[in-house]
Fold these 4 entries.
Entry 1:
Amino acid sequence: MPTAAELRADLDTKRAGAAAFLDAFKSADGQYDMPTSKVGEYRKRNDEITDVARQWEAAVESEKADAVEAIKSESQGRIIPGEVKDSAPARIETKAQLDASFKGAFQKYGKAIADYQLDDPPIRFNIPADLKTVVTIGTSYVTQPSHVGQVESALYFGDAEPFFPHGTVDSASVVGYIQTTDTDNAAFVAEVNAATDSAFVWTPVTDEVEDVQTWIPASRNLLSDESQMQSTITGMLAKRLQKVVSNKILNGSGTTPIIWGVFIRTGFQTQAKGADPTFDAIHKAMTKVRVTGDAEPNLAVFHPNDWEEIRLTRTVDGVYILGNPTEAGPMRIWGLPVITSTGMTEGTGGVVDTSYTTIFENGGLTVEVSTEHSTYFTERKMAISLVRRLAAFHYRPSAAATITGI
């Protein structure tokens, strides 16, 4: 089975071949003067790119899982009787002992936990505690910002959030570092000659954890007589909330109370379409992410109207390049998975390496129902409120690039 590195090299080769194939049929007006006989060949190339891209994505996840398993199966050392005294208590009886036990477990398995993905096997460790009250990690061990994997499913059609890693934070802000200087002077040098030093500069940046909320009034009689309606209302509110979050992850201004968007944060790149066909402009944006951003794009995002134009691209003979109307057609471009979102400004698309962004959650989604608003108690009304507290931190803004003028 080929490795992720081998599949990545094959993917780059196939993308370059497809780009050269399209370039041969590019017309002066930015369209493709491609004979019908060649459309099938392009579709075959596109299918090959999609297939290799999926294999590469699977290989990356498989190798990550293998690495985590290897770490967990490594020897943790041993204690030779008489040389080292085991100071851990046989049973935990105090809060201080519980705190020390938790910290020790997280230190011991820290690397495996840091690399953990939601679909990995669970990591378990035993703590010999005699609990007289319910104790949670949050009461005894303050969690720090950490990458804990990706959410599993989208709540609505244009949900971008599932593609970004998630972490947790227990504070009102997130402090991270953005690399602002990367001078690479690594080189071969002759004997007794001095090497030129490289230079890295990281700039500390503080992002506020912002609140996003929605609420709706409901009759107490409705919720009492039709108990399923609370779940229905809550689910609909959750979708509205998620749509706002997803859109702002893409285009948020970063001005309180709005989180930073991956295609807005200072340092992102831009590729103008100009006279190029849209396909070419997207590929050039991907190249910018690789060359300047030193990253690998793994997601393309477009406004639904823009993706419609891309999907309906035809040759001068009227043949659909991305597949006939009888076919669903791939939601991929140059092998990248595509999502459509109204969070993107119409006329501007984007490609991004999502691994350089983390969505930090403070407490997750909170649902509250109350009669304490205004005169709701005497009117027998209930206020149903949903709120999330989160920040979107983009460690390498140049890992994202927009395509304008499409």
Note: The CA atoms of residues 148 and 275 lie 43 Å apart.
Entry 2:
Amino acid sequence: MANNKFKTTSLDQMLDKHLGRAGTYKRDKFESELRLDLLGQAIKQARQELNITQEQLGELVGVQKAQISKIENSAKSARLETIMKVFDAMGAKVNFNVEINKKRLVL
């Protein structure tokens, strides 16, 4: 049987190695940006589920198609108010989780 020369590494180990441990500035920034990118993806997925174009969604929200595209591709540049208007226009329910010192706050 051949010797396996490859070592299995977990995602957390890779992130620790390349970005630092959880709680460090670089790691926290990366994870924050990742969550914002996922928010943009959620908007895109919801829009596609409703079978509407970016232009149609923009009309519902009161913004240009380019703004919807920008939000879907990188929600970091969008204001929270605009993001909430987008979800509201699609009739989507949005939930927030707030965690402080590893303790979840009930809102």
Note: The first strand starts at residue 98 and ends at 100.
Entry 3:
Amino acid sequence: MTVTSVVILVAWFTPVLCVAMIVAGALRARRTTTRMLIPVPGLLIIQITTVGNEGTVNEIIRRIRGYELAIPHEIWVVTEPWARANYQGADELIVVPEDFHCKASYKARALEYSRRLRAQRRLNDFFVKVLFVDDDGVPTKSYIEKVSIADFDICEGMPAPRTGYGRLLSHMDDLRTINCLYMCSVFQGIGHPIHVHGEGLCVRGTAEALVTWDYQMFASEDLVFGHMAVLKDRTWGFIWDYVEITSPFTWHDFLTQRRRWLWGNIHAVRHVLPLRSSLLLIGLYAYGIFTFVASTLGIVLALTGALRLPAHMTPWLVTSMGLWLSMFALSGAINSGGGGSKGIRRVAHVIVAVLLAFVTSAVAVVVQVVALFQGNPRRFDVIHKTDPKARKPSLANVLRQGAAEPVVLVPEPVIPIPEPVESSSDFSQDAVDG
């Protein structure tokens, strides 16, 4: 057997490893939710960081209020002075002062300001937890209940693009769920994440006070925080539950989002993360690209007769392909859940997720390559959180329908926010340390 054949077989049998990791991660998460528990925290702060997405933020708040949580909690909305809006139902509206400066930029700067504010108010102890929610997703009730009592300094679950699932771009996010199913469930579960996502990140007050968000970064703040937490010996965990997110509505926004993630990660690897974390992240990217390229090359060689394998391997290869497709089926089943689709419609979503498996994988790789060649945006480009093609409902129609709290669809522009210059902070170091 040639070296080329061996390389291709390694790529073709990767799904077997991935499915084994999913099973291991599920078993680990089950142990977490049955044994590694603490009493209900003294306070759970659910923080939504936004730049003016009034409609989606109000809907998130409405959903969370509708859960009627028994956990003592507050909802904080953190925003910029130039992006104020009419946020309804929040306990705290935190506006980051224009003259607040720290090492971090953009969203990370806002997170650092809110952290220092909590420290000033003595809300940074062991019995306080902070659940970070993006302005395009909402955690399920069971997710909030699980992370609040999980005995970890930091934990998170799975992003599921359930809002408007069924659009082509929402299926392009199926791979995000799959990656979290086998990567996050295992590595967060054993206490050393490789990839970290911000949706639903839940942090103990003492951990946030120790780790902080104050690093030289313009994006990928969740990745940096997660790895720095490991460096400072904080405990990590994974929760098998979902944060219901919204996929980009246009290809332009899809590319903008991925470009921000990629270059935020590159910046973190080059300038912020420790060597061990950087090598793990580079290895993750490299193996993902290798798997797709080698698998695709193997298919071409097999179809042209240039690759010949022993006949007894055929059943094993078919099994591996079946496992690969089953991961997309599982992702489709998860992402079409949550009440958005049922019966035949949900089955159809699962089938489409499987049929688009190769396209989804190809797009993930191509977008990374395009984003790499586009270069570093050096800013935090935001995208639309609602469908820009949807018509804004008129006030007359809203009143006629009897809606008490209309959710207005306000597209969020792509805005380059001026990057702050590092200087002394507004809070004393004593307040920061609590």
Note: The chain has a mean pLDDT of 87.
Entry 4:
Amino acid sequence: MILVTTGRNPTQSTRRLCKELTRFIPGTRRLVRGKLGLRQLTDELSSAESDRMIIVYRGFGGPSQLELVRLEGSALKKVSPTISLQSAYLEPKRRRRLSKVECITASSKGALRLAEVFSDFLELPLADYKTFDFKHSLHISSDARGFLRIAPIHLQTGYMEGFSLVTKRLRW
């Protein structure tokens, strides 16, 4: 199981992104952090029989960073990269679909390295974007400016199904 939580003092959009991540990524559960410090988060991970966590930090009014963390022994270890976000789009509630992603796909070589990290961390298969062995994917693509976009998509139609995150920088 993977716990999804926020940093301290989250904004409404940061909390909503956590909810969206748990809606679309299988094997995840949202943890309301409150005033828990990192030591208490470690205890929560242990009690939930989990060894992985996604922390969504806030910036100027919204989500600004995603951090992937593993529990190794009794210590939290960051998994590279730390993902700085340029923007986060959250679909209006009336348009949401309820489908968990089944694989990770990447549409460019620049996105493949991040897709491999997500595939390993989320324990989802890395699939070819053009095949239709799966219906729903967490898709990573790059735009003309070199920014990466992370979004759940329906593979047969290519439509985005929920949130869309545009990365600003990956810190390996």
Note: The first strand starts at residue 2 and ends at 6.
